[in-house]
Amino acid sequence: MLIDQEHDAPQDFDFAIGDWAVRHRRLKLPLQSSDDWEEFEGQSSTRKILGGFGNLEDNLIHLPAGAYRAVALRSWDRRTGNWSIWWLDGRLPGSLDTPVVGKFADGVGLFYAEDMLDGRPIRIRFTWDARGPQPRWEQAFSADGGETWETNWIMAFSRAP
Fold this sequence. Notes:
single chain; mainly beta; ten-stranded antiparallel barrel
């Protein structure tokens, strides 16, 4: 059964709806002055939920050490105009990551959160670039309150055949 979307639902993540092949590039040791990256493939499938005020991204990630599944859950707050994004790693099914919160401007979405890494406080930034036909996502960490950022994960999306 197809559920109608609400007429005033946000369209910020419409670019992500559908099935994707994903090329991952991930820094092995974030915030440790490392330049050791690993590359691997993945698949992603995103669909709208909550009448268009959210979406669910189902991922199969082929890490070199073995594949795993994960989900991104996104919801939009019509009061603030902000999106919240949660990550659920299938290897840790009882724990949602701290949500990143933010919005899009001119096809680029910036989302932030405060979190911990190896016992120290960090800021997290997700960047979604939806300006072209092949979206790109980046994750960056800051150990100095957002003064400087280190990109540690890049995902390049192309439509699945």
